[in-house]
Design brief:
The structure is a single chain. With about 250 residues, this protein is of the alpha/beta class. The chain has eight helices and eleven strands. Strand 4 and strand 5 form a beta hairpin. Helix 4 packs parallel to helix 6 and helix 6 runs parallel beside helix 7. The longest helix is centred in the last third of the chain and has 17 residues. The two termini are about 25 Å apart. The site of adenosine-5'-triphosphate has 13 residues, from strand 1 and helix 1.
């Protein structure tokens, strides 16, 4: 393979997810999506358009309703047929892939309230049996969290907690980071600062990042590739469909 050929991490073709509740149906359709190693991808759209749904499909958290092709290349492990893994209900295999290769910054922060900041950041490393080293301290320095390391999440501001969530997603050195509105609950000024810090950190580490956000303006300045999406609603409002590709 020539050195210039980009390594494809995600390849999706005709993948769909339908979610229904209380007579309302939402459908996400992905006719075609390809994400290469080192890319920085943004999914920008209004509330309810399916950003979290797509990220959860890419993190193997949600099972797709239909799959034409869904493959994932996890470095040394080679290409994995994610559609087949779901069909065979290989949930442990999917969870293991996620743990080993991905960091997830959740929309709600998702910190464990009973663990201090150090242990929250160290969680993924501990779960993977990685040795104790200075990773957590170094991340805390970069994220401006050193004086908070031995506090519980409750004692931190929202922006500080979001920085902890970013540290936790990075600590086990994943190849991919999926970030669902990592700056959703802070003011626009803080959001811009946290997002620049976050993108700077993933760039430095050559991590592939997929980030969902409402705010395109400052994300554009950071050089992310925006996925195209189109949402339409039925006239009675009971059916919504979003088509994403890129
Ligand atoms: N567990 C679920 N069961 C049924 N429908 C769901 C479920 N979760 C989400 N939905 C619906 O799927 C649609 C897309 O939701 P999703 O959370 O992906 O949107 P989003 O773009 O992330 O929105 P936000 O910006 O508010 O986070 C919404 O209409 C939502 O009501
Ligand atoms: Mg969401």
């Amino acid at each position: 393979m020539p050195a210039s050929t980009p390594e494809i991490i995600y390849q999706l073709k005709d993948v769909a997810k339908t979610r229904s509740s209380n007579g309302y149906t939402f459908g996400l359709r992905v006719p075609s999506l390809r994400i290469c190693r080192g890319e920085k991808i943004a999914l920008i759209g209004e509330s309810g358009c399916g950003k979290s749904t797509l990220l959860d499909l890419l993190a193997f958290i949600l099972q797709p309703s239909d799959v034409g092709d869904f493959s994932f290349c996890a470095g040394a492990a080679g290409t994995v047929d994610i559609g087949a893994a779901w069909r065979k209900q290989k949930r442990n295999r999917l969870a293991a892939l996620r743990k080993a290769h991905m960091g997830y910054v959740m929309q709600t922060g998702g910190l464990l309230p009973y663990l201090n900041i150090y242990d929250n950041i160290n969680l993924s490393r501990r779960m993977l049996g990685m040795p104790a080293d200075d990773t957590v301290e170094n991340l805390a320095k970069e994220l401006g969290l050193v004086r908070h390391l031995y506090k519980l999440p409750d004692a931190l501001s929202t922006g500080e907690r979001q920085r902890v969530a970013i540290g936790r997603a990075l600590a086990h050195r994943p190849a991919i980071i999926i970030a669902d509105e990592p700056t959703a609950s802070v003011d626009p000024f803080a959001a811009e600062k946290i997002m620049s810090l976050f993108i700077g950190m993933v760039e430095e580490r050559n991590i592939t990042v997929i980030v969902a956000s409402h705010a395109w303006r400052h994300i554009k300045q950071l050089g992310l590739r925006r996925l195209a999406h189109h949402t339409r609603r039925s006239t009675d409002g009971r059916m919504t469909e979003t088509v994403v590709s890129g």
